[in-house]
Amino acid sequence: EEVVRMIAAGEVIESPASVVKELVENSIDAAASSIRVDVKGGGLAHISVVDDGVGIAADELPVAIQRHATSKLPEGRLDAITTLGFRGEALPSIAAVSELTITSSAKGENVGRSITVRDGKVVADHAAPASGGTVVVARHLFRNVPARLAMVDKPQVEVGHISQVLRRLYLSSPHIALRLYSEGKMLLSTSGQGDRLAALIELYGGELEEHILDLGIRELRYGRYRLILSDSAVTRPSRHHINIVVNNRWAQVKALLASMEQAYRGILPKGRHPILLLQLDLDPSRLDVNVHPAKQEVKLLDEREVIESVCEQLRSALGKNPS
Ligand code: ADP
Ligand code: MG
Questions:
Q1: Which GO molecular function terms does the record list (predicted)?
Q2: How many angstroms separate the alpha carbon of residue 5 from the centre of ligand 1?
Q3: pTM of this prediction exceeds 0.90
């Protein structure tokens, strides 16, 4: 049973960055507007996420850490998901591979509760002052999973992954003021002003401001999209700056990504990629987010229509812009 629990946990929690992703997604789902992430030792020693969201009621806190406990599935309907989480796997998975403390209170309550789980067992459970949100702390990540620990990179590299996770979350939720500290040093601070174009410029700096193309909103049969990208004067040597956000979720849409690369190949210098944000807002019944618990893959039912429209727009926008 213990082994099964840890294998299952590994599906969702493969690195410190996946802990941060799951916890911050929970904060976003809880309607937080400000989220602070602190890490030590690249996240292995300590990860904490503090939010100002709706909180968890005292009697619901023990339930939240149980497997498959989610408050988010609308009448069990997978096709109506509007939250980032829906499987109820993250908290029990993190608890299986770390020492996890959750302290929270529901909005309007004047007392909260704090529960600590180690090796899947509750080792502390007491009342706590109401703090107007939730604090989650994960310590000693992977201490009980040597194989996973061996896969973890140097702290500096892991902090880089964590920072990338937060940058992606900011592009999908630009209304959140996000802060990241590593060893007490601030590495990222976003304004949370709410606009995706401004968020992209915020993340990439002034360089982008004069070289950004906002191609506006295009309608699709089952939704619409907005394409924002750097012109051919600002390119990157890797595709890591291509961001696809589907229904407010940063997503990997493999065929779409590959087709976009085809579309600008030959227009941009060889091996160069734009900084790009494709915001797709689709009828939730036209996509499948349930492909893999950690891989962020989303399947579009109308992939061909999206690809044709986006690539046509991409080609004409970059083609028109002399470098
Ligand atoms: P999921 O996000 O898939 O529902 P999780 O294991 O990540 O599953 O979380 C379990 C439950 O705990 C959530 O459904 C939610 O009710 C509650 N929860 C977790 N984190 C927070 C938070 N930061 N604020 C409020 N509620 C939270
Ligand atoms: Mg979750």
A1: ATP binding; ATP hydrolysis activity; ATP-dependent DNA damage sensor activity; mismatched DNA binding
A2: 19
A3: yes
